[in-house]
Amino acid sequence: MKKLILFSLILSGAAHANLHLSPPDFMTSQGRAVFVDFKTAEYDITYDLDLERASVKTKIVFEARSAGNPIFDLVPTPYSVKLDGKKVKHHMISFPGGVSKLRQVAGAVVPGTHTLEIENELTSNVMFDTDFRTVSSAFWIRDLKDRLFMEQYIPSNFEFDQYKMTYNVKILGVRKAEQDIYTNGAITQTSPVSWKIEFPEWYTVSCPYFHMTPRKSMKRLDFTYPSISGRQIPITVYSPWRSRTKKFKPEAIRVMQELEADYGPWAHPSFVAYGTMVGTGGMEHAGATATSFGALDHEMLHSYFAKGVVPANGNSGWMDEAIASWRDKGYPRNPTVGFEGSNIGGQSIYKRNTDNRSYALGSAFMAYLDFRLQDMGGLKAFLRGYFQTYKHQVVTTEHFKNNLEFFSGFNLDEEFSTYIWGVNSSDTEELLTEENPHHRPLSKAQLKSLL
Ligand SMILES: [Zn+2]
Questions:
Q1: Ligand 1 center to residue 290 CA distance, Å?
Q2: Is residue 289 part of a domain?
Q3: What is the pLDDT of residue 15?
Q4: Ligand 1 center to residue 446 CA distance, Å?
Q5: Does the residue 444 lie in any domain?
Q6: Ligand 1 midpoint to CA 315 (Å)
Q7: pTM of the predicted model, to two decimals?
Q8: C-alpha span between 272 and 122 (Å, rounded)
């Protein structure tokens, strides 16, 4: 009995200590680069209307498992980094194999709890209107290219880590801020010019949604949806055009009904959807999305797979697009996979983005798994249980495979090592060019125009 209690205590205490999911530490010319476990990250985000400048002051409390130089990421170059209160140098480095870039603190730590304080300028997707004294700012993300999660804006850890994020947002240069904020965090106005936004502890670097606009520049509809759980879920849909916003409401309700029936209750406190223009595709956040109308259903599915159960790394991201595309295609069931092999889940362990062949190859693999599982209710029956058991947790391809095998009783070694962790066959190359309408790559100017 004692042992049992001890075991459950360890489990609950370690709920979001995900260092076992990080890639291995590695050596650089600066020393040993060590992955660390962020506990909390508090961001003071200040928009100065007179200077037309946005800056971020961050305090991160983290735990180091081994001695070395902590690593994190931030695309804008920080102008100050302090480790445990002391100013330290920092270096831009590459992961082994050059698959991605990141930042390494020059100061070393011993195992235990430490703090990092970082200051940087917010340079992407922010606009100042000095005539009307308002700011537009958004933390859009993308997952098909490298370094386009929160690290574009604020110091962040890598995808494996779940930690409590708080944004303290402030506008300087006005007595009273004329702003609206759309977010998937819990928001409190703390003064006429400031707000505090607190995000759930299980969030990763790809989960928060933050969009600040001039007051009333968007046409919004707020309503509640009666979840099958009995909860009333607050939903906000908004866009620059009343007609577009109106169109989003019934579609959001329709998709919510479909997804709850298939996979169980919505796993987020609310749902926020920003309706962008036709042809822009969309991007999913946790219980939130910025999306064109045509991709709304696809992005909402991602609140189950991608931001309900959350991928731990670039090699696990294929699953989200595979499941979403399998649904987009009407859940086909096929006795064969239809290609010879691929490595969509078997690239460098340091890779951070999702392989863009995951839509075509991954959904074909799901259709095949559905065929194999047809006597057990099909793949959807498995996915429903998988989502409900592991929601708000970070998962890997290995975890998905182990659970599939447990559910079905099959050994799927050969299937995964051929189609997911294998060698690319020539027939996968033509699928490379199949453009996915749901996650169109947008230029910097296009992203800014969505503000
Ligand atoms: Zn998608």
A1: 12
A2: yes
A3: 53
A4: 19
A5: no
A6: 15
A7: 0.94
A8: 24
